[in-house]
């Protein structure tokens, strides 16, 4: 049977192939008509294995797992998409996949799948787009945090926790892309190639990672700033700014008080190299600040007054977003107009990778904390309904009971969720 032109156009589009998110194109009979490189990496399969295969022949349930529901749940979701012509978000779905190197073996995986209809010019549903994110690592971290007591393989986290799980997954994927040199569109960094360049990059990597590992808790970015000044000759100060949704930075790490004053001028005047690099996603290299007055007049006047001679700003980019900037400052002295420090752009990529790894840990902790709060509120609701009291009193009751039993209040909450009283009014 010929493949519909909509399915062909989707699977052959440039965006489909280069996106870092895993996608599969399916026809109405659930045969695989297209897979992108990200999906092949996620499932450890080859294109030849999958194209033309029936989805559930390629990815059957693990015959050794009597509780497996992957085939049933995914096929039901796809049927809804094909019959209704609307997207279907499956939440969190355990679905083990065949191991690539061991015949008959399966690898435990947990996914966040979303299925969407593919529609032709006449409005007919001609296939489905299957998008998954591998959230196995974060799901397992949450299982450990919850002691595994009240969590089954099909546990569905609340919406906020699930969004955080997806954030961790995307950060991890972006960090891997940076390490692989994919953060700069079009190829590796512009600092050169060959054995000598690789040796310098390796030395920079070790310098930054060593600084990050030696940093006290919460001080990773500040330690990396110091390493940038040490590793890049001709650099007097370094600033790492991580941006949120507004103009003010969420986090600012500096190598010196002087650098902090210079960087803060940009957020007072509303312009400058760091803001320009973040807004455009491109490096901003100002070798002689005296000559940039027409570009950022307010910032330039204030920065020259602080003794700044040059500024070089680099976006901290992942494969999918710009997180912030690395800005290097040079004082006004000696010969002017010298270019940026060698290897500065490579250093920006390495810093992005290191900071992403640090942020992943923080996000996982936030996910765990959110899961704790969610369980406490659920347990408080059970107690309130059972004892006929308010939720505030129920939370206090949980704290007192936990102290008496010498367990954490979160563990007590999870025990109640796992074994709630059969009826309201039953003794706890």
Automatic annotation (TrEMBL):
Keywords for the protein's UniProt record, in alphabetical order: Transcription, Transcription regulation
PROSITE patterns: ANTAR
A Pfam family reported for this protein in Swiss-Prot or TrEMBL: ANTAR
GO MF terms, alphabetically ordered: RNA binding
Superkingdom as given in the UniProt entry: Bacteria
Boundaries of every ANTAR domain copy: 356-417
Name assigned to this protein: ANTAR domain-containing protein
């Amino acid at each position: 049977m010929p493949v519909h032109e909509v399915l062909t156009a989707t699977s052959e589009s440039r965006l489909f192939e280069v996106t870092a998110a895993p996608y599969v194109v399916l026809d109405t009979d659930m045969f695989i008509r297209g897979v992108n490189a990200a999906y092949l990496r996620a499932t450890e399969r080859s294109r030849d294995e999958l194209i033309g295969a029936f989805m559930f022949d390629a990815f059957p349930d693990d015959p050794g797992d009597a509780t497996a529901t992957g085939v049933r749940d995914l096929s039901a979701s796809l049927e809804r998409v094909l019959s209704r012509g609307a997207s279907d978000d499956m939440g969190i779905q355990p679905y083990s996949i065949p191991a690539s190197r061991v015949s008959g073996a399966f690898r435990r995986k947990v996914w966040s799948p979303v299925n969407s209809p593919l529609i032709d010019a006449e409005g007919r549903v001609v296939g489905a787009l299957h998008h998954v994110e591998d959230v196995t690592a974060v799901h397992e971290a949450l299982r450990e945090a919850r002691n595994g007591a009240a969590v089954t393989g099909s546990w569905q986290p609340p919406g906020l926790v699930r969004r955080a799980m997806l954030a961790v997954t995307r950060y991890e994927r972006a960090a891997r892309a940076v390490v692989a040199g994919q953060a700069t569109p079009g190829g590796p960094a512009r600092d050169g190639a060959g054995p000598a360049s690789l040796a310098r990059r390796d030395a920079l990597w070790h310098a930054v990672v060593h600084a990050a590992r030696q940093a006290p808790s919460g001080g990773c970015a500040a330690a990396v700033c110091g390493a940038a000044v040490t590793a890049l000759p001709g650099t007097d100060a370094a600033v790492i700014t991580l941006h949120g949704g507004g103009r003010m930075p969420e986090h600012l790490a500096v190598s010196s008080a002087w650098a902090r004053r210079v960087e803060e001028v940009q957020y007072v005047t509303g312009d400058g190299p760091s803001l320009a690099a973040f807004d455009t996603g491109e490096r901003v290299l100002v070798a002689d600040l005296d000559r940039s007055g027409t570009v950022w007049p307010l910032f330039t006047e204030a920065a020259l007054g602080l003794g700044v001679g040059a500024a070089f700003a680099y976006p901290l980019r992942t494969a999918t977003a710009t997180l912030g900037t690395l800005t290097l400052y040079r004082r006004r002295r000696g010969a002017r107009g010298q270019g940026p420090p060698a290897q500065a752009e490579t250093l920006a990529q390495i810093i992005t990778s290191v900071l992403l790894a640090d942020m992943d840990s923080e996000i996982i902790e936030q996910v765990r904390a959110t899961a704790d709060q969610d369980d406490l509120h659920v347990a408080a609701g059970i107690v309130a309904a059972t004892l006929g009291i308010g939720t505030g009193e129920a939370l206090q009751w949980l704290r007192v009971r936990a102290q008496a039993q010498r367990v954490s209040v979160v563990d007590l909450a999870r025990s109640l969720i796992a074994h709630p009283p059969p009826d309201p009014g039953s003794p706890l």
